[in-house]
Each structure stands twice: as structure tokens, then as C-alpha cells.
Specification:
The chain is α/β, with parallel strands linked by helices and 431 residues long. It is built from 12 helices and 21 strands. Helices cover 30% and strands 24% of the residues. The protein binds pyridoxal-5'-phosphate (PLP).
Length: 431
């Protein structure tokens, strides 16, 4: 296994940045998510630089659903990012983090009347997913006496090599307006009194480890931009979404570098807009590729059991990291307190949840483990804590952030009280 540059092994212990994971687990307890701020900065800078070097008007919109901690959003806001937000909660967090409304795109295929009113009130751009939504948004804007700037989410009908649950641009997907219908949608938007179409939006899926689908997607959007120029839509941005993958199988998977991504997408984009004589901003919406590798999940071994395979039973399961159970995802695991011991046995890392599928990792060669040992699950920064739950009556764990020599909690541990605080007793149960 090849560790990413912010992780290292020193005297047998796994370090994240300058911090010994054994010390962090001792200080904050386990389970514990730990994020390296510098890694997020590097990931952001490298992508933003690769794109900006090839076109002057580039805006990164961080996909807030990947990791919505306010501290993470603040880091990215400080670097100039806007955000792709999918809910009132994500919108509020992005604004609280200091992101400007004009670089927030309110996405979603099922927005409620409240969502639409909020989008109008906060002056963000909206990615409209249906004609029904268009007329509702127009009415909401009219009743507030405002004009809302919109894009349509286009379904490009593109097959992508990824898990079917995270392919979003298939012809059969619930997202977006089919490419063949979208021109009519723009015509309708042009006729709306309180909506101004200024963008195109697309997102083809997640954990994509090839660049070619992004180039094809961009070509579809350029074709659409040509049609939009004909009907008089003044395009201010073309948003190609996110989806660049992370090499979860370290040393085996290969993820395109930001430069390779830019080399695939930008020639299609720049040639297209030049031919059309327009200069819209290029928007991208990375989530996973910015935060995925920045974070580890530390979990302690409660017990070891020899059965048909050898289980290391740990204190974190799919309540805290749903990806292995939900998508059959692979995450590398490291024995964090004996990281330079020889890997001599095969272990299946099993969580504490009352479900057979609660396995974080299957059949991994690790040093001999015993109760009390510390396991680090790598690349847990995207769709990790963000998808956690309180299933089985388990409070969620804390999240720590490290930067150089500093460490701080960016979220405290939940308590048993947090489990019950939102519950109320029906009157007929009261004595
Ligand atoms: C999830 C999502 C993203 C981010 O996807 P990643 O694979 O994490 O980069 C971007 N845009 C939209 C609309 C999304 O739903």
C-alpha cells in the first residue's frame, strides 16, 4: 500500500500530518474522524490551478454533501470556493462559512416550496430540474418581487464506469432534463417574468477514474450552448459538475490527476466557447477529490474472534462509515499502533452494528491484532461522517481537524442525551 503524502509511519505509529494517531485516539477517544486541513488546501489548489492555467474564468463549487462540516466549508470558502448545495441545511452552512450567494448553486431534483422560497430569499443561483419546478420558482420569485438566475440540470445520457448507485447521468437517472427536451425548457424560462436563464448544469456521477466521460459530457454541453446562443440565452456559466474519483485501493487504483482532468476537459471547453464567441465561466463541483483522502477514521479493536474467518471487532461500523456496506466500497486499513509490524494474518474488520453487512474491510493482511489495538480506515473524508447515523442507538463520534502542529475538535462527540433530545412523549403516555 502506498500512503498519501500527509500520512506517514514513524516508530511504528501512523501519523497524520505532524500528529501521532495513537495520541489523538488517546486524547479524544475512539471512534474518531481526523482531517488534515493542509491536504484539503493542496487538493483544492492543485485542481484550481490546473483549470485556471487553461482558461481565465474558473469557479470551483465544492459539493457540500461530501463533507459538510462548517470548518471544512470555511477552509474552502477562504480559498475562493463556492458550493453546490442540495438542501436548506447545506445552503445555510455555506452562507455561514462565508461563501458568496452568487457562487452557490442550489441543486436538487425534488425541491420543496420552502426550498424555492429560501433560494429566492438568499439570492443564490438555482439548478432547475423540471418544468414544474421552473413555474413554481418563477411564482416564488414573482411574489418576492425578485428575479432568480437559473441553470437547467441537463441529463446527457452518458454511461460512466462507476457504481450504479452513484452514476447520475444515465438516461434512466432521476436527475436532470433529457438533453433532447432541454432547449424547450430554456425557451420556457426565457418567457418567464421572474427567472433568468444564465447557466447550464450537468453532473454525470461520482468516483469516476477515467477522464474521457468528462470530455464527452463537456462536448454535450458545448453543443447545447450553441443552441442556446441561437435562441438568445446569455450564458454566464457552464457547470460540468464533479465526480473525479479517489484511488481507494492504494497502489492499485489510479485516479486521473487534476492536470489530466484539465487536459481532457479544457480543450473541448475552450475550443467550444471560442467558436461560439462567448466567454462563460467554467464551474466545476468537486466533492470527493477535494476531501476524500484528507481524513482517516480511527477505530479501536474491542475483541478478536477466530471463526470461519478471523474477525477484528471494532468500535466503528456502518453507522459512521456507510460506504463499504452501501456501495461495496474498498477502504485501506492500517494497524495504526503497530504500523511497521509484518502483516502476518488476514482479518475482517467488523463494526458493532447488529447487521451481518456491517463490515468495514474484508480479508486484509494485517499485523497480529488484539483488543485495544488501533485501526485507521483511510480515505474516509468524503461521504464518511456526512452519511453517518445514530442507528442502533449509537451517538455519532467526534471529528478532529489538524493543521501543522495544531489540533482541535471541529465536532464534539454526541452523547446518549443527544439521541433522545429530539424525542417527545405523547400525552397519553404521561402518568
Ligand atoms: C454529489 C455531487 C457532486 C460531487 O460529486 P463528487 O463525486 O463528490 O465530486 C457534484 N455535483 C452534484 C450535483 C452532485 O450531486
Amino acid at each position: 500500500m502506498i500512503l498519501p503524502p500527509h500520512l506517514s509511519i514513524r516508530d511504528g505509529h501512523l501519523f497524520i500530518g505532524e500528529h501521532d494517531t495513537v495520541d489523538l485516539a488517546g486524547r479524544f477517544g475512539t471512534p474518531l474522524y481526523v482531517t488534515d486541513e493542509n491536504r484539503i488546501r493542496e487538493n483544492y489548489r492543485r485542481l484550481a490551478d490546473a483549470l485556471s492555467a487553461r482558461y481565465p474564468k474558473v469557479q470551483v463549487l465544492y459539493a457540500a454533501k461530501a463533507n459538510g462540516n462548517l470548518a471544512i466549508l470555511r477552509i474552502l470558502a477562504g480559498m475562493g470556493a463556492g458550493a453546490d448545495v442540495f438542501s436548506a441545511g447545506e445552503l445555510d452552512l455555506a452562507l455561514q462559512a462565508g461563501m458568496r450567494p452568487e457562487v452557490l448553486l442550489f441543486n436538487g431534483s425534488s425541491k420543496s416550496p420552502r426550498d424555492l422560497a429560501l433560494a429566492v430569499a438568499t439570492d443564490v443561483r438555482v439548478s432547475v430540474d423540471s418544468l414544474d419546478e421552473l413555474s413554481q420558482l418563477n411564482a416564488a420569485a414573482a411574489s418576492a418581487g425578485k428575479t432568480v438566475e437559473i441553470a437547467f440540470r441537463v441529463n446527457p445520457a452518458i454511461e460512466v464506469p462507476t457504481h450504479p448507485k452513484i452514476a447520475t447521468g444515465l438516461a434512466t437517472s432521476k436527475f436532470g432534463i433529457p438533453a433532447g427536451q432541454v432547449l424547450d425548457a430554456y425557451r420556457e424560462a426565457l418567457a418567464c417574468s421572474n427567472v433568468r436563464p444564465v447557466g447550464i448544469h450537468c453532473h454525470i456521477g461520482s468516483q469516476i477514474l477515467e477522464v474521457e466521460p468528462f470530455a464527452r459530457e463537456t462536448a454535450v454541453l458545448i453543443d447545447l450552448a450553441r443552441d442556446l446562443a441561437d435562441i438568445g440565452v446569455p450564458l454566464e456559466f457552464i457547470d460540468i459538475g464533479g465526480g473525479l474519483g479517489v484511488p481507494y485501493r492504494r497502489g492499485i487504483d489510479r485516479a486521473p490527476t487534476p492536470e489530466e482532468y484539465a487536459d481532457a476537459v479544457m480543450p473541448v471547453f475552450t475550443a467550444g466557447v471560442k467558436e461560439l464567441g462567448i466567454e462563460p465561466a467554467l464551474w466545476v463541483e468537486p466533492g470527493r477529490s477535494l476531501v476524500g483522502d484528507s481524513t482517516i477514521l480511527l477505530t479501536r479493536v474491542n475483541s478478536v474472534k477466530e471463526a470461519h474467518r478471523t474477525f477484528a471487532n471494532v468500535d466503528a461500523g456502518f453507522n459512521l462509515l456507510a460506504r463499504p456496506a452501501m456501495y461495496d466500497s474498498y477502504h485501506e486499513v492500517v494497524a495504526a499502533n503497530r504500523a511497521d509490524s509484518p502483516a502476518e494474518r488476514e482479518y475482517t474488520i467488523a463494526g458493532p452494528i447488529c447487521e451481518t453487512g456491517d463490515l468495514l474491510a474484508k480479508d486484509r493482511k494485517l499485523p497480529a491484532l488484539s483488543a485495544g489495538d488501533l485501526i485507521a480506515v483511510l480515505d474516509a473524508g468524503a461521504y464518511g461522517f456526512a452519511m453517518s447515523s445514530q442507528y442502533n442507538g449509537r451517538p455519532r463520534c467526534p471529528e478532529a481537524l489538524v493543521r501543522d502542529g495544531d489540533v482541535a475538535l471541529m465536532r464534539r462527540a454526541e452523547t446518549i442525551d443527544d439521541l433522545i433530545t429530539t424525542m417527545t412523549t405523547p400525552a397519553w403516555q404521561e402518568e
